[in-house]
Amino acid sequence: MRRILITGSTGQIGSELTVELRRKFGGENVISTGHKRRPTGSALASGPFEFLDLDKEEEILTIVRRYDIDTIYHLAAILSAKGEEDPKMAWNVNMKSLINILEVARKEKVEKVFWPSSIAVFGPSSPRDNTPQETILNPTTMYGLTKVTGELLCNYYFHKFGLDVRSLRYPGIISSETLPGGGTSDYAVAMFYDAIRSGRYACYVRKDTELPMMYMPDCIEATIGIMMADAGRLKRHDAYNVAGMSFSAGALAEEISRHIPGFECTYEPDSRQKIADSWPRSVDDSAAHKEWGWKPKYDIRSMTEDMIQKVRAKLSNAGKG
Questions:
Q1: Which domains occur in the chain, in start order?
Q2: Across residues 63-88, what is the average pLDDT?
């Protein structure tokens, strides 16, 4: 029976991953953690929760021992746009938390650790179309720097200590459940909310800005999928490229307008445009397909249809409350 610890469990990915893992392995076997607030709502409150300061290795060690943890999903991080506001904090939070998790996992012989990387590892010298699994990594953000360093660190712990660390380079993640949390690609989530609320959205990247994206159900499937994969099939312990779809901000606005006639999107690029311009337009994730069976289910049309339905229901229920 799996005993799973999740850090960052109230974030965009963590909140939905926690629910799915509890569905698969039982509520009491998935321990969610956070450092600011206790989760609310029946789904996230359906199992154990602990406040955890990831800056303190001894706190992580205590919880791993208390719950006899054998699997860790370490999702807590400062994201790209937020990280540029305070680069030193982004480095300290992202790197110290990771080294502490890896050290505890090594000492306690935790079976598996998942840590998310990102397309932020790529930079201006990386090919922007069909970006290869192995290529130049020269990020232009502190977030990207922490992800490149993290990939190297995870690979080091695998080869040096035999710790089974697994990772994905997430593209932009689109979700109906959690509001944007400081990522450059978050415009794709905000656009849905503003389209439904007011019928208009001021986008902070250009109309032609194209990025790799993934819908949350595919993200959860990929995250659990790599952790369930036979270790003998995996050839990487730094991070695999994964993607679901690529589209421009204008293409998303056009797709939304098919469901919300009269929707107006304006484009007012800000500092996040420079970050987006340094990232790929599409990535080659063939290694993930071949080595552990990754296959996305959603494209822009099916994602948009599902997102509009879910966001409308969420806003309607919030209004009733």
A1: 4-171+215-241 (3.40.50.720), 173-213+244-283+298-320 (3.90.25.10)
A2: 94
